[in-house]
Design brief:
Length: 413
């Protein structure tokens, strides 16, 4: 059977996007051309099971892809595929489930054949058009947070050997990447023998000429002094940004979540990081409406977030994830109340982001140009600049002003 084109649909986290990029690269090497779902012979869906809503979205997406006019082969992978393979397979006759992502490219080729096309030109380093590619250095999680099922879907924590990290980094830089993100499900637990994440960062800096490295989302206990000191040692070559997952700013809620820290520990981590990294921008994830969250606990969480002065917050309303302790916990919060709390938290997030953006006016920023006239700073702020600056380049720019959406206006230094 002759092959042709393949489309990619990602649902969920950054790690899913990285895994989909790897699959796309293998299929492009086999001659299958990336295209839009409506024109594809095969569609790869990388699924997410982090919440009940995410799982429902996966099922809806698979059904929609399977019923497109050209009746494509739909190959589903990811966390929902690991947990509910038989249910996904039964959605349509042209749906194939492959939980093992290393086998997905082979499955696609077996269904539609190898292609002979020439990849279409697109901006970006990866076949899916991304300019800031990531390397998955770790997978799995050994935590047992009461709202999460990822540990079941992903398995126990395991790390990519450092030599393989360096090999992938060289390959990625060889494709033109100027910034690379180190990511994983729980990257702070990276271990290769005696090498931890701080040691890996030192090794990457010593063995690679990559322009900038960014550390992906990390748990508070893993933001060690060793890691922060390593970031400080390498200056601008490590993005001055940490996404430190909080989930709640109330100690009572954190205990019910079975998180491995309290607000005092979180505060201490942030204080040390800001002392050693004066230009640090701080991001986080935050859940509102967790079972049992009282109005007082929500107010505590709101106040703590304001104290931390996050520049980037992902605010989620709690969504029941069947199979987790939280799903059957007492005192589930009314959805209307969750929506109200979410609005208040998101408004705080907007105010804090704008405040951080205004603080950057007059500063010089290292900017990765992601598309014509638009780049991203080390602190993950969009910056508008001269559209003639080449896409993919890493340049220095002076911040002139803040726009209405809290993006920045700059000019080359």
């Amino acid at each position: 059977m002759s092959g042709g084109s393949v489309a990619f649909v990602n649902l969920g986290c950054r790690v899913n996007r990285v895994e989909l990029d790897d699959i796309a690269a293998r299929l492009e090497a086999a001659g299958l051309v990336p295209t839009a779902p409506a024109a594809a012979d095969a569609i790869v869906v990388n699924s997410c099971a982090v919440t009940g809503e995410a799982e429902a979205k996966t099922r809806k997406t698979v059904r929609r892809m399977a019923t497109l006019a050209q009746a494509p082969e739909v190959i589903v992978t990811g966390c929902v595929a690991s947990l509910f393979a038989s249910e996904l397979s039964g959605l349509a006759p042209n749906v194939t489930v492959e939980a093992d992502k290393s086998l997905v490219a082979g499955r696609v080729i077996s269904l539609v054949g190898q292609g002979g096309g020439v990849p279409s030109a697109c901006e970006g380093v990866t076949p899916t058009g991304r300019t800031r590619p990531a390397i998955k250095i770790q997978d799995g999680c050994d935590n047992r947070c009461s709202y999460c099922i990822v540990w079941k879907a992903r398995g126990r924590g395991r790390s990519l050997p450092a030599v393989e990290v360096l090999s992938r980094l060289d390959e990625t830089c060889g494709r033109g990447a100027r910034e690379v993100v180190l990511t994983g499900i729980n990257i702070g637990r990276y271990r290769d023998g005696g090498l931890d994440l701080a040691g890996l960062l030192d090794l990457v800096m010593a063995r690679s000429d990559v322009g900038r490295v960014r550390i992906g989302s990390i748990e508070p206990p893993d933001v060690t002094e060793r890691l922060v000191d390593a970031m400080a040692r390498h200056g601008g070559r490590v993005a001055p940004f940490l996404h430190v997952c909080l989930q709640s700013g109330s100690d009572a809620t954190l205990r019910r979540m079975c998180r491995a820290y309290d607000t005092a520990a979180y505060r201490q981590v942030v204080a040390y990081a800001r002392d050693r990294l004066p230009k640090l921008s701080l991001g986080t994830d935050l859940i509102v409406g967790f079972p049992g969250e009282t109005e007082g606990e929500f107010e505590e969480s709101l106040a703590f977030c304001e104290e931390m002065a996050f520049s980037r917050m992902h605010v989620f309303r709690y969504s029941r994830r069947p199979g987790t302790p939280a799903a059957t916990a007492p005192r589930q919060v009314d959805p209307r109340e969750m929506a109200r709390r979410s609005r208040r938290m998101r408004e705080l997030a907007r105010r804090m982001r704008r405040s951080e953006a205004e603080r950057m006016v007059g500063s010089e920023q290292l900017v990765l140009v992601e598309r014509a006239g638009r780049g991203v700073t080390g602190g993950l702020f969009d910056l508008h600049l001269d559209p003639s600056v080449p896409v993919g380049s890493l340049v220095r720019a002076c911040v002139r002003s803040v726009l209405d959406d809290a993006s920045l206006l700059g000019r080359l230094s």
